[in-house]
Amino acid sequence: MRLFDPSKPLEMQKQQYQQLVNRMSPKPPVLRNCLWAFLVGGLICFVGQAFLSGFQRLGLSILDASAATSIVLVLIAAFLTGLGLYDEITRFAGAGTIVPITGFANSMVAPALEARTEGLVLGVGARLFVIAGPILVFGIVTAWLAGMLYYFFGPRPPVGS
């Protein structure tokens, strides 16, 4: 089969090319990828729960233990990103590594590491929030908007109470 035949219209050639691409493209092992994402994401959550329980056993309140757990998970993810290990885990586990807190830490550290040759301020400092910045902005704006809607349209206490 000739890929491009000058006697056929261009649209037909595009369709032939697309069929060739579809036939030659490797098919991803979806079930295996889902299994690894589930297992690695579950492992990250298990580690987080272990830290939370450990901090509570040390006498921290649930709020303090939650904050300490978040800090530890961010530090671990940032450290693994700095060593280049988080990317290797992500290649292996895919979506399982974007458990919110560790994925957030990775999204902040990775661009900063790429820009470290540009200096601490203009490189690392400027790139820290390249990916995470829009997430923070839209998260804060959405929370503010939800709070305003609740304030203006939410339930009202009975008059005289």
Automatic annotation (TrEMBL):
Keywords: Membrane, Transmembrane, Transmembrane helix. The chain crosses the membrane at residues 35-55, 67-86, 92-113, 125-153. This is Stage V sporulation protein AC. It comes from Thermodesulfitimonas autotrophica. The lineage of its organism: Bacteria, Bacillati, Bacillota, Clostridia, Thermoanaerobacterales.
